[in-house]
C-alpha cells in the first residue's frame, strides 16, 4: 500500500542560491546536504513537515535545464500553507520577492502566489478553519 509522498525534485541552475531562498525567506530547514560522488544532494523541508523533502537538484542536461523556473508551467509547482497569509505576504514582499497578487479571501481561505528565485510559482494558502 502506498502511504505518502516523501520527495519532490526541483531542478535549479544554482543550488546555493536556491537553498538560501527557501531557508532564509520561507523558513525551510536543511534535511540533507551531502556529496554522492560528483553529485551534491540537498533536500530541505518545511519546519513543521520534516518527512517531506524538496530536493534541490542541479540541472545536468538540456532537458533538466529547460525545466528551471517552469516546473509547473504557468500553474503553481506546489502549494504551501500559512497560519497568517496576509502577514506572510507582507513579509515576503518586504524581502523583495515577486508577489503575483494581493492576498485574496475565498470561502475556503485566504491565498496568494509568488515566484521562487528561479521563477517557479508557489501558491500560499491560509485555510478557513471549520467552525
Outline:
The chain has 131 residues and is of the alpha/beta class.
Unreliable parts: none
CATH class of the largest domain: Alpha Beta
Proportion of β residues? 35-45%
Cα shape: globular
| Secondary structure tally, helices | 3
Question: What separation lies between the terminal Cα atoms?
Answer: 34 Å
Structural domain count: 2
Average pLDDT taken over every residue: 95
Structural class: alpha/beta
Count the beta strands: 8
Helical residue percent band: 10-25%
Rounded to an integer in angstroms, the radius of gyration calculated over CA atoms is 15 Å
- The name of the CATH topology of the largest domain is 2,3-Dihydroxybiphenyl 1,2-Dioxygenase, domain 1
Main sheet: which strands, in order across? 1-4-3-2
What is the makeup of the main sheet? 4 strands, mixed
Account of the 3D structure:
The chain has 131 residues and is of the alpha/beta class. The chain folds into two domains: 1-68, 2,3-Dihydroxybiphenyl 1,2-Dioxygenase, domain 1; 69-131, 2,3-Dihydroxybiphenyl 1,2-Dioxygenase, domain 1 (Roll). The chain contains three helices and eight strands; from the N terminus they run βαβββαβαβββ. It has helices spanning 15-26, 62-65, 85-94, and strands spanning 7-12, 29-36, 39-45, 53-58, 78-81, 104-106, 109-115, 121-127. A four-stranded mixed sheet has the order 1-4-3-2, covered by helices on one side. Strands 5-8-7-6 form a four-stranded mixed sheet, with helices on one face. It is globular. 22% of the residues are buried. The model has no long low-confidence stretch (mean pLDDT 95).
